[in-house]
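Something for you to look into today, if you have time. Could you write out one complete protein record for me, on any chain you like? Leave the record below and I will have a look.
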Amino acid sequence: MSFKIVEPRIAFFHGLDSEYPSDKTIYIQENYRYHYTPHMDYRNDDNLFEKTYQDLLEFKPDLIIGNSMGGWFSYSLSTLLNVPTLLLNPAVQGRSIAIVKDVVTRQGDFRPKSMCVFGINDDVINPYKSIDYLKAHQSLENMVFYIGDFGHRLDAEAFDRYSKLAIHNLLQP
């Protein structure tokens, strides 16, 4: 017997130095009753990763969505929690700051289903190097890649489209 998640529990992590709340944060808050959308102080909070990990253990998300630096957080957390991810231009390589050491070293053994979206015109995170990183560190049978005609920032329409596609493809049996 299969089931359908009617109201998914969504965790969303914005990018480095994004305004808070960002348009993507607001979209999640307005469209999903069960959400975890914290402000992420990547530059100054030395315990950010561990606090976020503990919060997610309690929140129990069905899907983790991360944009840029939030994509790196999402990827790392998914390997510990075995939760599917939507990674948007994830900073899995080429990060502009040396963030909390825990983030770099806290990888788990899980390789859950993931949908990765890259902008072909991204001038911040090189999409091809990111794909190579993920191919080397992730089970490819659990991963789908999309490359769109945009840069590092996704507009609201693209975010809506990829979010709905991830929920449909990653959370349905």
Notes: The first strand starts at residue 10 and ends at 13. The chain has one domain: 10-171. The beta strands are 10-13, 35-36, 63-67, 85-88, 114-119, 143-148.
